[in-house]
Amino acid sequence: MLRINSRGHFFSFDRPVIMGIMNVTSDSFFDGGKYQGLSATLKHCEDMISGGADIIDVGAFSTRPGAGFVPEEEEAERLIPVVKAVRKEFPNILTSIDTFRQSIARQSVEEGADIINDISGGTFDEKMIPYIGQNHIPYVLMHGSDSLETMHHGNIISENVCETVKQFFENQLGKLKKFGRQQVILDPGIGFNKTIECNFELLDRMERYRIADFPILIGISRKSLIYKTLGVTPNESLNGTTVLNTIALLRGADILRVHDVKEAAEVRILVEKTII
Length: 276
Description:
Elements: E1 3-6, E2 9-12, E3 17-23, H1 38-51, E4 55-59, H2 72-89, E5 94-98, H3 102-110, E6 115-118, H4 128-135, E7 139-142, H5 161-177, E8 184-187, H6 196-204, E9 217-218, H7 224-230, H8 238-251, E10 255-258, H9 261-274
Parallel strand pairs: 3-4, 3-10, 4-5, 5-6, 6-7, 7-8, 9-10
Antiparallel strand pairs: 1-2
Helix pairs in contact: 1-2, 1-9, 2-3, 4-5, 8-9
């Protein structure tokens, strides 16, 4: 289970953790543009916390297929005011920052963010791993691709996906361990640079890439493996998301990253009843 030491506080969870997604972007694949302005952002955060979120994950750079490039200055302008506001209004909630840039991570941590959620696992910015390692910052290490440009259209993994993901984790963990014991969460990167079949395999076979006692985060909320398989749209993918979140918890996921917090929290309650 998840244990986090941040801002002089120790956060301990004895049940699966719900991470609520807060996109402050105009072009995210599902909720882009829905929460523009601090008042709307804070209201959504409040709703997610009331619904059962343990962590709020804030992102200002959409990584959906075909999304536009966001300059570093623009990402900071979108993100940092939100980090400050969320920390002020909800001082007891854990906040995660969805960024692959070391400078954005540093500014966010300086404003009170607790976790850095890096879709590149430290490969897009060579300064990220040393920064995380030297400061022992809680870090979501996600398996992705070699570059931002090839994230969805590059060398798509079609076989041996669990072994490939585990090897990547071991390599990046080795770099972090040079700086001493770290607080790492592993994310297999479902939906990134993998076939739909491989995405389902990652959901079903977590034991094949789990390393030691590092928590595993699963982010499948309204993703293409759901809506392409069912022949629906992201807006019609809540039911599919709920089914796969249920499977994720039954397979041993420690964290669910979701758009729909209340529904995920209900999944958690019901799954807990089945595994007593």
